[in-house]
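Propose amino acids for all 404 sites.
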C-alpha cells in the first residue's frame, strides 16, 4: 500500500456510513458486505445477513429478475444499472420525510458493480442503492405542473380560437353594415344611367316607328314622293344624328352600370374565396373609390398621387374594407367641400397608402383612442366606432402598420 492511501479503517468507516445502501454478494448470492444504511432501513444487522443467501434473508425481493441481473454482471464483467423510474422499489424500505412529515417507501436507483479477484474473474458484485425519493417526488410535482400548464395552454388556445371567431364575425358584420350603408348610394349610381337609358329607349322607339313610316310609304299610293314627304316631316337629318348620339349615350350608361356592378363584385370578392393573393393596391383603391363614390362626390374632389408600386400579397377584399373605412371617415370629416387625396408609394421593400382629407382633423386627445373598438365621436346611429378598429386588425394581419 502506498503512503498516500487512506487508512483502511477510515475507508471502512466511510463506506459503512455513506448515505447510500451498499452491499455485495458472491457467486452463490451469499452476502459479503452490508453497510449501515442497509442495516438501518432493512432492520437486519450485518450479523444476521452476512454469510447468508440474499434471497433467503429477503424473500420479498424479485428473485428471478434480480438474480439474473447479478449473474449477468458476474458473466459480462460489466456495470449494470436500474432506475427508480422503471423499478423504484427493489427493497421495501420506509423513509421518514422530515420536510413533509410523511412516510414514503424509498424510491431507489441501483448500480451493480463487478468486483474482480486476483485474476480476471469477477468474485463479487457490489450493489449501491441510492435514495431517489426526493427526485421522484419533485419529478411527480413537475409532471403535474407541466400537465396543468398544458391544460391551461389548450384552454388558452381554445379561447384564442373563440376570440378569433368572434372577431371574424365582427369583421363580417362590420363589412355587411358598410355594404348596407353603401347600397343606397350604389343604387343611386345605377339608377341614374338606367334612367336615361330608359328614356333614350323611348326616343329610339319613336324614331324607329318614324323610320318604319318612311319605308312603309314607299309601298303606299304616292310611292317615293310620299316617302320623301314623310322624311321631311320627321326631320330625318336631326333624327339620324340623334339616333347615333342616343345609342352612344345609352351604351356609355350601360357601361357605367356594368362597371359599378363589376366594382361591387371586386370590392366584396363574393365570387372568390378569401385567399391571399397578389394584388395592386392602386386597383383596390380605385375599385373602392368607385363603390364609395356616392358618399364622396358631394363632399370632396378626389386627387390621386399614385407612385409606382409593385403588387403585394394580401387579402384584397379585406384591404378594400380598410380603404373604404378610411375614405368614408375622410368624407364624413369634411363639413364643407374639400379634397380627398389618395397616395401610394414604396418604402424599403414595403408599400404605403395614404388617404388624407382637408376636414376637421382628429383632436390630439383622441389620437390614441381612435383604434379602440367602439370609440366614436359621431352621433348615435351615425358611427359604431368599429371602422378603424377593424381596419387596425386587418392591417396587423398583413404585418403592416396603420397610423393617423
Ligand atoms: N379622417 C378623419 N378625420 C377626423 N376624425 C376621424 C377621421 N377618421 C377617424 N376619425 C375619428 O376616429 C373615430 C373612430 O373612427 P372609426 O372609423 O373607428 O369609427 P366611426 O367612423 O366613428 O364609426 P364607423 O366607422 O363604425 O361607422 C371617429 O369617430 C372620428 O372621431
Ligand atoms: Mg368610420
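Proposal:
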Amino acid at each position: 500500500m502506498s503512503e498516500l492511501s487512506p487508512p483502511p479503517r477510515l475507508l471502512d468507516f466511510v463506506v459503512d456510513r455513506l448515505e447510500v445502501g451498499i452491499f455485495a454478494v458472491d457467486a452463490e448470492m451469499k452476502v459479503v458486505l452490508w453497510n449501515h444504511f442497509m442495516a438501518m432501513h432493512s432492520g437486519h444487522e450485518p450479523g444476521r445477513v452476512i454469510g447468508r443467501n440474499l434471497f433467503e434473508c429477503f424473500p420479498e425481493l424479485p428473485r428471478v429478475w434480480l438474480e439474473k441481473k447479478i449473474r449477468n454482471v458476474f458473466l459480462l464483467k460489466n456495470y449494470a444499472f436500474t432506475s427508480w423510474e422503471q423499478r423504484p422499489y427493489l427493497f421495501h424500505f420506509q423513509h421518514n420525510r422530515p420536510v413533509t412529515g410523511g412516510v414514503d417507501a424509498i424510491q431507489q436507483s441501483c448500480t451493480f458493480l463487478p468486483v474482480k479477484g486476483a485474476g480476471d474473474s469477477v468474485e463479487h458484485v457490489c450493489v449501491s442503492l441510492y435514495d431517489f425519493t426526493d427526485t421522484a417526488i419533485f419529478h411527480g410535482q413537475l409532471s403535474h405542473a407541466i400537465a396543468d400548464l398544458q391544460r391551461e395552454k389548450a384552454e388558452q388556445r381554445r379561447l384564442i380560437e373563440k376570440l378569433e371567431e368572434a372577431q371574424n364575425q365582427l369583421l363580417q358584420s362590420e363589412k355587411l353594415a358598410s355594404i348596407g350603408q353603401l347600397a343606397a348610394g350604389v343604387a343611386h349610381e345605377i339608377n341614374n344611367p338606367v334612367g336615361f337609358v330608359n328614356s333614350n329607349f323611348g326616343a329610339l322607339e319613336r324614331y324607329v316607328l318614324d323610320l318604319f313610316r318612311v319605308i312603309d310609304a314607299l309601298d303606299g299610293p304616292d310611292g317615293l314622293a310620299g316617302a320623301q314627304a314623310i322624311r321631311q316631316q320627321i326631320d330625318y337629318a336631326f333624327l339620324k344624328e340623334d339616333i347615333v348620339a342616343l345609342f352612344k349615350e345609352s351604351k356609355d350608361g350601360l357601361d357605367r352600370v356594368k362597371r359599378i356592378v363589376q366594382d361591387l363584385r371586386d370590392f366584396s370578392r363574393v365570387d372568390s374565396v378569401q385567399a391571399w393573393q397578389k394584388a395592386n393596391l392602386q386597383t383596390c383603391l380605385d375599385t373602392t373609390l368607385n363603390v364609395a363614390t356616392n358618399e364622396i362626390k358631394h363632399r370632396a374632389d378626389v386627387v390621386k398621387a399614385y407612385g409606382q408600386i409593385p403588387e403585394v400579397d394580401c387579402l384584397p377584399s379585406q384591404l378594400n374594407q380598410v380603404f373604404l373605412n378610411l375614405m368614408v371617415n375622410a368624407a364624413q370629416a369634411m363639413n364643407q367641400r374639400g379634397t380627398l387625396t389618395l397616395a401610394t408609394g414604396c418604402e424599403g421593400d414595403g408599400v404605403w397608402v395614404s388617404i388624407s382629407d382637408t376636414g376637421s382633423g382628429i383632436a390630439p386627445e383622441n389620437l390614441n383612442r381612435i383604434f379602440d373598438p367602439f370609440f366614436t365621436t359621431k352621433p348615435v346611429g351615425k358611427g359604431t366606432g368599429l371602422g378603424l378598429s377593424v381596419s387596425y386588425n386587418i392591417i396587423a394581419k398583413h404585418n403592416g402598420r396603420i397610423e393617423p
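The chain has a mean pLDDT of 88. The first helix runs from residue 8 to 17.
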